[in-house]
Amino acid sequence: MVVAGEAIHCGEYMEHSHRIESLEKKVDNLNNNIDSLENKVNKVDKDFAVAKESMTQSLTMLSKLPDTLVETQKTLAEMQTTMIGMQYSLTENNKSVEALAKQVSGLNDKINSVDAKVDIVSDKSKFDFLEYIKKNWPAIAALLLFGMAWVTDKVNFFK
To answer: What is the pTM of this model?
Structure first.
């Protein structure tokens, strides 16, 4: 049998045991929370290291940007100078082409004039036999008659 003093002692023990279990659960929960927080801190440390490296690279690239911009500006200035020279050359070439076009036009006019003169000379040098006969038929007829009379007189066909 349990004596009254032992029952109190046993009840206290149960109560202490229960408290100890409750405290152990709380300690386990705290340990789990600490582990979770450590994992999060480790992840933040890794992310921070990556971010820091990325920022370092970005700063390095940004530090080179002014030099790159200066070089780009120089290149653009050189391109502008080259393009101005090309524009001048094109303008001069256009002037030359216009002058040559005027010369060609003048030569075409001279060729057309010579061609017209050649056509006139060619027309004058043509001999149109039928036109000649139409204009001169009375003289031709008289000549033929005279020629036939002379041949008949010289050659006696009826002898």
So the answer is: 0.40
**CB neighbour burial string for 27-57, b if at least 16 within 10 angstroms, e if fewer:** eeeeeeeeeeeeeeeeeeeeeeeeeeeeeee
CB neighbour list of residue 110: distance below 8 Å, 6 or more residues apart: none
Question: Could you tell me if residue 125 is inside a domain?
Answer: yes
Q: Do the domain assignments include residue 159?
A: no
Which pLDDT score is estimated for 6?
55
What's the number of domains the chain is made of? 1
